[in-house]
Amino acid sequence: MLRCILGLVVPDSGSISILGESINGHNIWKIRHHLAYVAQEPDLGTGTVREIIEKPFSYRANLKLRDNLGRLPSLMERFNLSSGLLDKQMSSLSGGEKQRIALVTAILLDRSIVLLDEASSALDKENKQAVADYFKQAQNITVLSVAHDVEWLGFATRVVDICEHNSIFGAEK
Amino acid sequence: MKQIIDVSLWSLAGGYLLLIFPLAILLYQRVRILKETATAVIRMTLQLLFVGLYLQVVFKLNNPFLNLAWVAIMVIVADLSILRGCKLNIKRFLLPLFIALIAGTAIPVLAFVGPILRLPDWFDAQYVIPLAGMILGNCLRADIIGLNNFYQSIGTNQKAYHQSLAYGAALIEALNPYFREALRASLTPTIASMATIGLVALPGMMTGVILAGADPFTAIKYQIAIMIAIFSGTAITVFLAIRLTIHSSFNAYGTLNPNVLNTYK
After folding, report:
1. Residues of chain B found within 8 Å of residue A59, distances taken between Cβ atoms
2. How many CB pairs under 8 A join A and B?
3. pTM across the whole model
4. The domain that contains A19 carries what CATH number?
């Protein structure tokens, strides 16, 4: 579902509206500038962690966000990532570390909508709490998270249960 | 300098006797490639006989238009063999590849026959056909490596590629790392052969010019010029082959059309 919102999978039927616009091949490129996405098992490419975090900021659409990289050290600390990781190869990181690096990059991009696909799956209790705390205090961010993790769901303001029969149950908390 | 000695057909037939050695080794070691070997030898003989006869006519007439037509036929054959050689479903790439091959061949050939050789007649069969053939052959190899590398690495690194799109990359920004890798992979063989040329083996063109009776120094001048022509031709053709096929290979959302990689899934 999150990949449909990003326009990476085109739905067979129906339409998706984001920020008042029904997405199509034309406006998706602009809409993506409002979205951040953290995959379940993030594959961020090859290179050192620092190169990978900095890469999205070399894209023309994100150039004006380069100063956000100044917040990198404090965010790394917040998510229990040592600054020594920055010079390591991405491939040498554990699943949980990769997930938190992807989260840090997503946060630095200052998007208004953050899409998390099982983003807590490789995190231990402490880090899960750290991530949840961050998003709770963050202003003007909508987090759309797909999760099976009951503990993680506890952090949500609204849980939508998508059943096998495609019926949807929503619960305002 | 001496003129090259012609090989009589009977002696050439005798030359086939040299095949006794590889055939004996293959039989002795039970390497099961006898059928492939036989087919390859027969195909080589027939194809070269045909080309030899045809080229005799082309050379005798030496009509610039006929010479260019022959080059165009070579380009079409190259185009079709890239489509077969790439493990990609790229029938729709026929025209973009044709343009990429024409540009990669024509630009260096024109530089060669024009400013370098200063031929009175630019499209003289003796020069334009072998030069175009050598450059085109290299363009063909480079395009196969470049296209395979580009599309297959996007296929295998789909998650990382999608992540760059999700980070807000424009199509070309997301494709650039793969584009760079494909250029590197396709140009590396030519760079490596430039670096070792003359040390490890005497290159084909130089050998040909020497056998034809020319001074070795003339031969190396030709060889240097052809190496540079090949390198620039391969760079032009691979760049265009990828650039011109991108448009039809990705949908409006920037994801790779799954039927481009017909060997995958």
Report:
1. 164, 167-170, 173
2. 76
3. 0.84
4. 3.40.50.300
